[in-house]
Amino acid sequence: MAQEPSKSENFLNIKDIMEMIPHRYPFLLIDRVFDIVPGERAVGIKNVTINEQFFSGHFGDHPIMPGVLIVEAMAQTAAITVIQSLDSENKNSLVYFLSIEQAKFRKPVTPGDSLRIFVEKAQERGGVWKFKGSAKVEEILVAEATFTAMIMEQE
């Protein structure tokens, strides 16, 4: 089980993440990434607060983080593992979703939760990567999915 990062471990803070992927508020859905094995796996953290823009409409007096955004947080964490594995010439590439499979949402994620996102490469062929992802709050599984992404160079 992955632990919180120490200063000596391989981890990225929000500034590092923003240098690697193009997502910005309100769609940047990871705050930190650690236990990174480039091209293989990583653990992301999303600290969920009531200030999230989506809570105003999902579901008003009963705020729940949309499942599709949990899967997006998985994809952003996976994108970090992909970008970390590229040589310096390809670091400006973008990672695009191709498919989401077997998505399951088991428990609601609410303000105050710290979402821990685990992604691991299942397969890679050329520029197409398949990942298995899961998300936990404390030690409770809240979501899981298998998803595929493709690397494309920015023009």
List keywords for this structure.
Thiol Ester Dehydrase, Chain A, seven-stranded antiparallel sheet
Concise summary:
By secondary structure, the chain is α+β, with helices and mostly antiparallel strands. It is built from two helices and seven strands, in the order βαββαββββ.
If you had to describe this structure to a student in words, what would you say it looks like?
- This protein is an alpha+beta fold and 155 residues long.
- The chain has one domain (23-152): Hotdog Thioesterase (Thiol Ester Dehydrase, Chain A).
- It has two helices and seven strands.
- It has helices spanning 14-20, 67-85, and strands at 11-12, 32-37, 41-47, 94-105, 114-125, 128-137, 140-152.
- A seven-stranded antiparallel beta sheet has the order 1-2-3-5-6-7-4.
- A hairpin with a 2-residue loop joins strand 6 and strand 7 (140-152).
- The longest helix has 19 residues, at 67-85.
- The chain is globular, with a radius of gyration of 15 Å.
Tally of domains: 1
CATH architecture: Roll
* Shape summary: globular
* Radius of gyration over C-alpha positions, nearest whole angstrom: 15 Å
* Total count of helical runs of at least 4 residues: 2
Number of strands: 7
Mind telling me the CATH superfamily name?
Hotdog Thioesterase
Name of the CATH first level: Alpha Beta
Distance between the amino and carboxyl termini: 39 Å
Strand order of the largest sheet: 1-2-3-5-6-7-4
CATH topology label? Thiol Ester Dehydrase, Chain A
What percentage of residues falls in helices of 4 or more residues?
A: 10-25%
**Estimated share of beta-strand residues:** 35-45%
